[in-house]
């Protein structure tokens, strides 16, 4: 009985590992940059909006937002990406880290260039905080101008609830 259970455990484990590898191997075609943190992709044969997880791109800094969108459009034009999914927001968009070959994390890149802020409500990753601080100290992107407290982004948690059970 023990040998059979061990064999079944091994088969199930290998199957799960293989499925994970298949998921990572899936590449999605970027069709359009809708907003700085939202892209449209061909996702398993259907059009899906992907919201870049863990970041916010402030719309009230119009010049910076336009620069960030243009940067993202050039970077992702005719590219295939991989996704690390974190569930869906309340609008049904897939929340994900977007990976461009060779393992270039687009979410991180937007933070490093100062085009985004760390969205701490849903992401406590210290690396995101570090990239934001570095961009802020170098006065890149939205940090070129001094941000006043009254202009700070106040995220509406109702729009970006993570579905922990998805996937």
Structure description:
The protein has 167 residues and is an alpha+beta fold. It has one domain (27-159): OB fold (Dihydrolipoamide Acetyltransferase, E2P), CATH 2.40.50.90. Helix content is 35%, strand content 26%. The protein has a five-stranded mixed beta barrel. It has a two-stranded antiparallel ribbon with strand order 4-8. The two termini are 33 Å apart.
Relevant terms:
two-stranded antiparallel ribbon; alpha+beta; 35% helix; 4 helices; 167 residues; five-stranded mixed β-barrel; 8 strands; OB fold (Dihydrolipoamide Acetyltransferase, E2P)
Spatial arrangement of strands, main beta sheet: 1-2-3-6-5
Structural class, please?
alpha+beta
**Helix proportion range:** 25-40%
The CATH architecture comes to Beta Barrel
Radius of gyration: 19 Å
User: What kind of sheet is the major sheet?
Assistant: 5 strands, mixed, barrel
Strand content: 25-35%
Low-confidence stretches: 12-22, 157-167
Layout of strands and helices, then pairs:
Layout: H1 2-25, E1 28-35, E2 38-43, E3 46-52, E4 55-56, H2 62-76, E5 80-88, E6 94-100, E7 104-105, H3 106-112, E8 117-118, H4 126-137
Parallel strand pairs: 3-6
Antiparallel strand pairs: 1-2, 1-5, 2-3, 4-8, 5-6, 6-7
């Amino acid at each position: 009985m023990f040998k059979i259970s061990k064999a079944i455990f091994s088969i199930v484990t290998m199957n799960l590992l293989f499925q994970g590898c298949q998921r990572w191997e899936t590449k999605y075609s970027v069709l359009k940059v809708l907003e700085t943190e939202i892209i449209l992709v061909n996702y398993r044969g259907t059009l899906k909006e992907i919201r870049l997880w863990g970041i916010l791109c402030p719309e009230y800094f119009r010049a910076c937002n336009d620069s960030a969108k243009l940067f993202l459009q050039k970077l992702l034009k005719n590219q295939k990406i991989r996704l690390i999914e974190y569930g869906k927001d309340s609008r049904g968009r897939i929340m994900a880290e977007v990976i461009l070959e060779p393992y270039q994390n687009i979410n991180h890149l937007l933070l490093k260039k100062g085009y985004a802020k760390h969205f701490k409500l849903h992401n406590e990753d210290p690396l995101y905080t570090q990239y934001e601080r570095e961009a802020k100290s170098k006065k890149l992107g939205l940090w070129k101008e001094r941000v006043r407290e009254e202009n700070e982004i106040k995220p509406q948690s109702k729009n970006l609830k993570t579905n922990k059970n998805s996937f």
